[in-house]
Design brief:
The protein is an alpha+beta fold. Helices cover about 40% and strands about 20% of the residues. A 4-stranded antiparallel β-sheet has the order 1-2-3-4, with helices on one face.
Amino acid sequence: MPTAPIPEALKADFATLDAARIAIRNFIISTGESYRVTYSNHTRYIVACRDTSYKFTAWASLLKGPKIRVTQYIPHSCSPLIHQKFPKANSVAFLRDQSHAAVSDNREIAPAQIQSTERIQFGNAGVSYQQAWCIQEALRKELEGDEAEGFKKIPALINILIEANNRNYVDIAVRNNHFQCCFIAPSAIPIGFNAW
């Protein structure tokens, strides 16, 4: 089966097969096309056209070295109608990359604005309000971190401060098993205050 040249976006050596999978997904969706996974394991990832009568395919393989590369690519030759309503084109996993800059700049961006950006900049009119909201929340969590996970790190921080200098003063207040506040006074503060 003759293959076409590998597109520039897929020519890299990938660190993992999952990174190659994401690159293939992003490339295909960004060109307005679709795919189905025909084979996937720890050494190979193969996608093909959703219409089985066409020859489109992209292969990512683990090679000696070890290297992970896209080793085969045959472009789509099917009707654009096959690509309509492709669910992965509206998935949070794909859309979050396109909305990252907007949410980074404005954490309170409205989901309707994310929908509008997708429609105008990327020609993707299929993003629902709920999907736009999910994108916004996923990116806010990624950018700001998870509050609950952050509070779980406070005891380790206290231990590090005390191990670094046992004259550091640290106090934590917990009520009904919920964090209330934390007071930290590095040893340099009282020393400096007393010297003044």
